[in-house]
Specification:
Strand order of the largest sheet: 1-2-3-4-5-6-7-8
Largest sheet: 8 strands, antiparallel, barrel
Order of helices and strands: HEEEEEEEE
CATH architecture: Beta Barrel
Number of domains: 1
Amino acid sequence: MSLKEDFAHAIAKDPEAIEGEYAVHLVADFLPQPIRFLGHTKIFKREVDGTIRGYNAFLGKLIKAGHFHVERGRSVDGAEVTKIIYDDSRNPAPMRPLTDEVREVSPGSFLGRGMYKFGQVARNVFWFTVTKEK
């Protein structure tokens, strides 16, 4: 099955169900196996108001980048997804149009696509997995 077909068969989760630390791997049909860069991890934390917020960490949390908040909603293609939204003032301007969309393929394991907004049009620019670590 292709990544697009795998994504279509996966399910969206409520943001409240996604907390903790997740290993991130870049995936592509042309790669022999998923690739993890610099120990890339996504950290998801519940705020006092119930919102799930987080950031991307590298090199054992030495580098923190890409702050985000999480919502459930629809993608531009109509799929129900869990959105990881980078439109945050702490991020550099070129990162803010990025929204990761994830769907659960098995308990604690998600397939995601990076959707980058070019003007008014969002395009899938990469695929990745996030897998629960802690």
